[in-house]
Design brief:
With about 350 residues, this protein is α+β, with helices and mostly antiparallel strands. Helix content is about 30%, strand content about 25%. It has two domains: about 150 residues, Cytidine Deaminase, domain 2, CATH 3.40.140; about 180 residues, Cytidine Deaminase, domain 2.
């Protein structure tokens, strides 16, 4: 059997969020050796054990051309350590905590067909951003070779929110913003989170549909696997079969003049709630998301606008499992809503 090989291309994300795959950027031609070694090490990884999803992801990670194997591990009942999570664990074990210190960090991913663009899930984006920052590369390819796509971690980030004039939006949102704050405080269970560490990641949520309002707040346990606020609200909407969002409000807890940092894991859950609505209605939709900061006495100091799809570029979702699974999922939701 002939040795596998890869033809490397570059991913470009435009200002309007469109992406395209182009010829490898000239300044990256000298890094082809790194990319090749990353995929070769990922291809040889024996770590992947997706007993539930059967979605094999073989990975590697390294710096200056020295790569460590990684892969997805599933356990319990439909629980998983994704390939990026095991890659980060291996990286920190080998190199130590090194955000911004090591150069030429590359994550290699073997999954899907040639030309497949990597799409890390929200939680994986959180741990990679926390550990490595956004200045590293991801190269994804197929085991049999063909086109492999080079992207940057920054391609999977979004924080360019549009500021909204308060006078134009307060009439619509003010009552629900105040309710989100008061109801979120009631729902929150968090005896573990230090107030002075990442206060921008503390927020309350309200998902608004034609049928009702679903408030959410984080729920933190001693094993430090919390339920985030959006996930909390999403679960409520799903349980009453009401995924048809009109808009979403997210209010930062502390007093600040900047928007909350909503975890990518939470953005992922909102994306999947919206997908459920699309599969049921047969219509594409992209509901607005309003990010809010407040001052003392609940005075609103700023509102920013994004949308369910805009703030999660290149999302991971059920479509990664193929068209047959998407048809199965649509049938599942339709039957669920008929009962």
């Amino acid at each position: 059997m002939a040795k596998s090989y890869w033809e490397f291309k570059s991913l470009v994300r435009h200002s309007d969020s469109r992406t395209e795959v182009i010829e490898l950027k000239p300044e990256l031609l000298g890094r082809v050796g790194f990319y090749t070694r990353a995929l070769e090490k990922a291809k040889k990884s024996s770590m992947a054990n997706p007993q539930f999803s059967l979605y094999f992801v073989k990975e590697s990670i390294g710096s200056e051309g020295r790569f460590l194997p990684a892969g997805n591990i599933e356990y319990g009942f439909c629980s998983a350590l994704h390939g990026e999570e095991t890659a980060i664990a291996a990286f920190v074990s080998h190199y130590g905590s090194s955000r911004g210190k090591l150069k030429n960090v590359v994550l290699g991913i073997i999954a899907g067909n040639p030309g497949n663009v990597a799409s890390p899930c929200g939680n994986c984006r959180d741990i990679m951003l926390e550990t490595l920052g956004s200045d590293f590369e991801i190269v994804s390819g197929a085991a049999e070779g063909g086109i492999a796509v080079v992207s940057s971690m920054s391609d999977y980030m979004f924080s360019d929110f549009s500021s909204v004039a308060l006078k134009t939006i307060l009439v619509l949102l003010k009552e629900n913003i105040l309710a989100t704050t008061t109801e979120g405080e009631k729902l929150m269970n968090d005896a573990y989170g230090p107030l002075d560490i990442h206060p921008e990641r503390r927020y309350h949520v309200c998902i608004i549909t034609a049928m009702g309002k679903y408030f959410g707040a984080r729920d933190v346990f001693s094993e430090y696997h919390p339920i985030y606020a959006l996930h909390d609200a999403v679960r409520q909407a799903r349980r009453v079969k009401d995924p048809f969002m009109r808009h979403v409000i997210i209010v930062r807890e502390d007093l600040a003049d900047v928007p909350p940092h909503v975890m990518y894991k939470d953005r992922q859950h909102l994306y999947e709630l919206n997908l459920q609505a699309e599969l049921l209605s047969g219509k594409n939709q992209d509901p607005p998301v309003y990010l809010v900061s407040v001052k003392r006495d609940f005075e609103i100091s700023g509102i920013w606008r994004t949308s369910v799809k805009e703030w999660l570029p290149l999302p991971f979702g059920p479509h990664n499992f193929g068209n047959d699974f998407m048809r199965h999922l649509a049938d599942y939701y339709h039957k669920k809503h008929m009962n």
